[in-house]
Amino acid sequence: MKNHKKQRNTTQVALFAGATALMALSPQLQAQSSVDALLNKLEQKGILTVDEAKELKAENQQDSAADINKAISSKFQMPDWVTNYRLYGDFRGRFDVESTDSPGNTATGLSGQDRDRLRYRLRVGMVVNMKDDLQVGFRLGSGDSAGNALSNNTTLENNGTKKPVWVDAAYGRWTPINDGVWMLMATIGKMDQPFVVSPMVFDADYTPEGAALQSSYKINDSHSLALNGAAFTLDEVPGSSRDPFLFGGQMLWNANWTSRISSSLGAGAFSIVNKNALGLSGFPANTANYNAGGVPNNNQGNTRNATTGNLRYNYNPILVSANATYILDSFPLYKGTFPIRLAGEYINNPAVDPATGPANNYGYWAGIQFGKSGKKGTWDISYRYQYLEADAWYDELVDDDNVAFYANGATTQPKTGWVGGTNVKGHLIKFNYSFTDSLNFAVTAYLNQLINDNQNLALGEPKNNALHLMADLMWKF
């Protein structure tokens, strides 16, 4: 038996070594792909076990990555303090449907009919790692216009016109402490937002500009604490030193109770200062401290002054979040262990003064997810209910896919049609399936209504249901 096993292992090593030697005659990227394909075939025929194939693939990827970095270094001479590079990105194709039972506004001619779009998102980036725990990164991204901080989507239109590409991220990072117990990391520039929050707080495509400080402490093998803080510029007002800024802080407690059960509990607070300098494109500038240019008007929902367009309230919300995960050994039609995750989030803006009108100052969501996609043959399906009142949080930061339908415009809520932001409640259902490690299919459905049909609207809004359905194919590289 031992001789048979030894002979089998020898055969496996010989096959893999021979394949690797043959592929070495081809370019490195082609070699890696071909060797992986050969290993898959050997696994299917039973010559290699699943674990043996995975181990050999990992070794091949490490060797290929080293060869690629070596090849890049030979073509592009870089300083000695640069240790390695990493190219990454993704492409997403989307079929986007919006549908409502609203009759629209017959007086203005606004129809409540369906809207269909074909869209794509492209993101390409590079991370350069250097000695002394330094890093620089940048990413380019698609988008219909530079005026939307919440989306990289590009709509297919205008007879195939050339489409723009924008700077989506550009940052410098230093990690002076990372000893396995303590970690401290500082980032400046335009970055992926550092807080562990849902799109109810920050849209997934939002890349703020400013500085962030992140740290963590490993209490033991089962428990750790994390602290995130940041200061972001919301706008730059010419001729003024009172620019609007966003400050935030968050603490998280992450715990692994057993091999099957884990949880996370978080609390945070945010504050927008100099809110009157934010302005909003399209509103009049009737006050001395109002920014006539304003930030781009993508979402709506906040209560505003009908004369100036300024935000009526301050935005200093507190945030609490929690989740718990239980892992099953197996589940029908799923490869590997199967996670089930319960999660929720609550936000409250105490800066709203109920004496001046309706509070409309809190929001929450709660949901469940079965499975986790990302690896070949895995999937997940999730449901959540979300309720976000008008002044719970600044409407220009939240998920712009979570839309409702406005039939009537008004001075302080000028946008009509499909608009994201606050003052929205409804259901979110999502399904993901990973055909391969790099190709994922997703279907996302929002079923929403406005919370307050008369919020800032002289005419009021008719009761209506709104469906936003998106079908995505995404390639990662």
Task: Describe the overall structure.
The chain is mainly beta and 477 residues long. It has 2 domains: 1-77; 82-476, Porin (Beta Barrel), CATH 2.40.160. The protein contains 3 helices and 19 strands. The chain has helices at 2-23, 28-44, 50-75; strands at 82-100, 115-130, 134-142, 154-155, 165-178, 182-190, 209-218, 223-233, 245-256, 261-273, 318-328, 338-348, 362-371, 379-388, 403-406, 417-420, 424-434, 439-450, 466-476. The strands form 2 sheets. Strands 1-2-3-5-6-7-8-9-10-11-12-13-14-17-18-19 form a 16-stranded antiparallel beta barrel. The longest helix has 26 residues, at 50-75. It is globular and about 70 Å long. Residues 1-31 and 284-291 have low confidence and may be disordered.
Furnish the topology, listing elements before pairings.
Blueprint: H1 2-23, H2 28-44, H3 50-75, E1 82-100, E2 115-130, E3 134-142, E4 154-155, E5 165-178, E6 182-190, E7 209-218, E8 223-233, E9 245-256, E10 261-273, E11 318-328, E12 338-348, E13 362-371, E14 379-388, E15 403-406, E16 417-420, E17 424-434, E18 439-450, E19 466-476
Antiparallel strand pairs: 1-2, 1-19, 2-3, 2-4, 3-5, 5-6, 6-7, 7-8, 8-9, 9-10, 10-11, 11-12, 12-13, 13-14, 14-17, 15-16, 17-18, 18-19
